[in-house]
Amino acid sequence: EAAWSAVAPDGKIAFGQAWKRPFTAAAFGVVDLVALLGNGTNVCAYAGCTITAAADVQGWLLLGSDDGVTAWLDDKEVWRNPAMRGVTPDQDHVAVRLAAGEHQLVLRIDQGGGGWGFCARLAADEAGTTPLAGVHLSCPTRAATPAAAPAVPDAPPAAP
């Protein structure tokens, strides 16, 4: 069990919320947000990781989400899909360029109702058949503290 930060409906970060990793560190697949956070309607969750590239590289960020997803890489929005759908791996394909060094990836997963989850991976080719060499992803092992809180990307603008 570890501590994690959560975003409240008012957009403020709540620190130290307990969570249990739903999978082993070496596993991959779909993260079931209903199992982690409960089922809600018209809510969202944020997930993040650090990407470390050994050298400059081009590749693909492959995403799956239930429902919509927005992705920020180093505080820049690189993808937004407001879909209402079930999650399937590799539904969205986003071309990315990574300079050597560390990068921050943040995902916002929207929930309209029903199932809720996501998956993400990096690949060298759009089909996802080749791993992206020299790239490592790591996730936080404990909650952010108020002094070290990450910036939370702004919510999307309201529909007209």
Describe the structure.
This protein is mainly β and 160 residues long. It is built from 1 helix and 11 strands. The strands form 3 sheets. It has a 5-stranded antiparallel beta sheet, with no helix packed on it.
With strands numbered from the N-terminus, the spatial order across the biggest sheet is: 7-6-9-4-11
Order of helices and strands: EEEHEEEEEEEE
Class computed from helices, strands and strand pairing: mainly beta
Sheet bearing the most strands, described? 5 strands, antiparallel
Q: Look at the structure and give the mean pLDDT.
A: 78
User: Into which percentage range does the β-strand content fall?
Assistant: over 45%
Instruction: Describe the global form.
Output: elongated
Q: What is this structure's SSE topology?
A:
Layout: E1 2-7, E2 13-19, E3 31-32, H1 33-37, E4 43-53, E5 57-66, E6 69-73, E7 76-81, E8 92-98, E9 101-111, E10 117-123, E11 135-138
In short:
The chain is mainly beta and 160 residues long.
Descriptive keywords:
elongated; 160 residues; mainly beta; 3% helix; disordered N terminus; 11 strands; four-stranded antiparallel beta sheet
